[in-house]
C-alpha cells in the first residue's frame, strides 16, 4: 500500500487497495478503462466527449487492489488547462473525471481518490480545488468539505453544480 502526499490506502472486501498517481502507461490505461465503464457504459456519456485534450497533461490518480484490479480514478487539471473551468484563477485546480467501479462503491474509494487529488494540488501550491459535480453526488462532495456555488447546468446531458474547497 502507498501513502504520502499523492497516495492513500484502504481496505475493500477484495482486500487492501492503494491510491497512486498514474505515472505509467498501464496505470493510465486502467484509469481510462474505469472511466469508460462508468461514464460511457453506465451513464451513456458519448465516448468522443469522455476523453479530451486535457487528458495527456492531467495528473491522474488510480485506486487498485493488491492484485492490480482497478477500482477508481480521477484527475487534476491546473494552470491553463483548468482556467476555463475555475474562472481563470491560476491558484485553483480542477478535479474531474472521478469514477469508481460499481463493485467498489461505498467502500471509501471515492473519498480516498479525492484526498489524493487534494494532496497533489497542495503539493503543487494550489490554494483551492473546484469540480463540477453531478447533482446526485453533491452530498458526497459536501461531506468532503466542498461548497456548491452558481446555478445548475447540464454537462453531457446530466445536471451538474460547480463546487469548491479551499485547501
From TrEMBL:
<dbReference type="InterPro" id="IPR016181">
    <property type="entry name" value="Acyl_CoA_acyltransferase"/>
</dbReference>
<dbReference type="InterPro" id="IPR000182">
    <property type="entry name" value="GNAT_dom"/>
</dbReference>
<protein>
    <submittedName>
        <fullName>GNAT family N-acetyltransferase</fullName>
    </submittedName>
</protein>
<dbReference type="GO" id="GO:0016747">
    <property type="term" value="F:acyltransferase activity, transferring groups other than amino-acyl groups"/>
</dbReference>
<keyword id="KW-0012">Acyltransferase</keyword>
<dbReference type="Pfam" id="PF13673">
    <property type="entry name" value="Acetyltransf_10"/>
</dbReference>
<dbReference type="InterPro" id="IPR050832">
    <property type="entry name" value="Bact_Acetyltransf"/>
</dbReference>
<feature type="domain" description="N-acetyltransferase">
    <location>
        <begin position="17"/>
        <end position="167"/>
    </location>
</feature>
<keyword id="KW-0808">Transferase</keyword>
